[in-house]
Design brief:
The protein folds into 2 domains: about 1-95, Arc Repressor Mutant, subunit A; about 100-155, Ferric-uptake regulator, C-terminal dimerisarion domain (Dna Ligase, domain 1, 2-Layer Sandwich). It is globular and about 50 Å long. The chain is an alpha+beta fold. About 45% of the residues lie in helices and about 15% in strands. The strands form 2 sheets. The chain has a 3-stranded mixed β-sheet with strand order 4-3-5, with no helix packed on it. A two-stranded antiparallel sheet has the order 1-2. It binds zinc ion (ZN) (2 copies). One zinc ion (ZN) binds near residues 95, 96, 97 and 117.
Length: about 160
């Protein structure tokens, strides 16, 4: 225990359980490094770019971290459904309900940067109907809605 690194932010029991369950389901191993990246993202109030994440981790662990390592952890977290990637902003955020597979819908506030993940089975059904009608096999149906959040509108 001679390392000077700070510990990763504490991960709530609920989120740790999600992470463990998702990894077990996928036959993946939840290493401390992977868990550390996940905890860092949960602690953030807004989505992070890979470089912001690397900077946070380097600051916390007081050492250089290879970007490739962080990208691998991010790939893992996305593969297991614990983290989503926002296509438009090229940032990452932890899934709000990782207990079940789903398509993602996001509300992105252009004023404060907050992102809400919402879930609409009605919309998912509609999107897959549209694809079906065109004989198209959809693989990814992420919806990102840009605008101003309720809190910013009130302020
Ligand atoms: Zn999600
Ligand atoms: Zn806002």
């Amino acid at each position: 225990m001679a390392r000077h690194s700070e510990k990763a932010p504490r991960l709530g029991a609920k989120w740790r359980k999600f992470a463990e369950t998702r990894c077990a389901d996928k036959g993946e191993r939840l290493t401390p490094a992977r868990l550390g990246v996940y905890a860092e993202m949960l602690a953030s109030q807004r989505p992070l770019s890979a470089y912001e994440l690397i900077a946070l981790l380097e600051q916390r662990q007081q050492r250089k971290i290879a970007p490739l390592t962080v990208y691998r952890h991010l790939d893992f977290l996305m593969r297991t459904g614990l983290v989503h990637r926002l296509q438009s902003a090229q940032t990452y955020l932890p899934c709000d309900h990782p207990d079940h597979p789903h398509e993602s819908q996001f509300l992105l506030c252009s004023s404060c940067g907050h992102v809400d993940e919402v879930e609409s089975t009605g919309l998912e059904k509609l999107l897959s109907q549209i694809a079906d009608q065109h004989g198209f096999r959809a693989e990814d149906a992420v919806v990102e809605i840009k605008g101003v959040c309720g809190t910013c509108l009130e302020a």
